[in-house]
Amino acid sequence: MTDTEPVEDVPKSANVNSIGQMFDRIAPAYDILNHLLSFGQDFSWRRRLANAVAGKEKLRVLDLATGSGDVLISLLDKNPNVTEAVGLDVSENMLALCRDKITRRKLAGRIKLVRADVTANRLDDASFDVVTMGFGIRNMPDVFNTLTEIHRLLKEGGTALILEFSMPDNRILRSFYLFYLRFFVPMLGRLLSGDNHAYRYLDTSIENFHRAEDFCRLMQKAGFSNVNATPLTFGIACLYQGNKSDESNG
Fold first, then answer.
1. DSSP code of residue 110
2. Which residues 6+ apart lie within 8 Å of 142 measured at CB?
3. Does the pTM of the predicted model rise above 0.85?
4. In degrees, to the nearest 5, what angle opens at C-alpha 28 toward C-alphas 166 and 86?
């Protein structure tokens, strides 16, 4: 069940294709990168996301841009009521890492992996109770289109949980973090992976991503209700939550 099942051909979009190729290149160093960017806090952030999943029985969960699978694994560790989980990613090398982790953790019976573009898949409308995305939405060529796709995939009453890096509001902390992103992370990333462009891109993608209040407005525009943002670790990351409800559709 952990074999990658393509529901859509690898996208021909130049933007999506280039992102997929970049993550194929840096896959071996990806987990280390997340630990570096988060100062090691990404473990607790994923637990925070997993703990936000509603406690009703027999949940069907989709994790978009699933990468190496850490969000999926955290969701299953914390929520035995998740009876089916689907992980979707465009990068085959990232899915290979995910597949290895799933096998080691003996979670194969609860997880299905799909290789596809987030916004060009053939998953059914209103088919998931929870849709999650960890550190992936800032890499999407069209963030609003991604949010409307998440809304489409959710059942009525379903929940979207999006974990993403952000810039701290505190000016001193923000200055320190910018220095860290612009100089230290690319230097170390180049040493670890030999790919200078990827780590420069990841820095600029964090700097240029929406501020929390703007992203919340974008979620509301995409049809979500009860939208909120929870800053994590002094604003280095943010956990966004929104619901799909009759009110949001009407």
1. G
2. 119
3. yes
4. 70
62's tokens = 């989709």
- The two structure tokens encoding residue 83: 């009876």
Token pair 């637990």 in the structure block, residue: 47
Please say whether the beta carbons of 72 and 47 come within 8 A.
Answer: no
Q: What is the DSSP-derived secondary structure letter of residue 126?
A: T
Q: Residue 222 has which token pair?
A: 């995409």
- Kindly give the interhelix angle for 70-78 and 42-51, rounded to the nearest 10 degrees: 50
Q: Which residue has the tokens 């998931």?
A: 128
| Alpha-carbon gap, residue 27 to 37, rounded angstroms | 15
Q: Would you say the C-alpha torsion 93, 81, 84, 133 has a positive or negative sign?
A: negative
CA atoms within 13 A on the CB side of 229: 19
- CA-to-CA distance for 96 and 250, rounded, in angstroms? 41
Residue 158's Cβ-count burial label (10 Å; 0-12, 13-18, 19+) is buried
Note the pLDDT tens digit of each residue in 79-92: 999 999 999 999 99
- Indicate the residue type of 134: G
Tell me the C-alpha to C-alpha distance, in Å, between residue 193 and each of 88, 140, 186, 189, 196: 24, 22, 10, 6, 8
Q: What is the mean pLDDT of the chain?
A: 87
At residue 214, what are phi and psi to the nearest 5 degrees?
-70, -40
Give 231's strand partners.
238
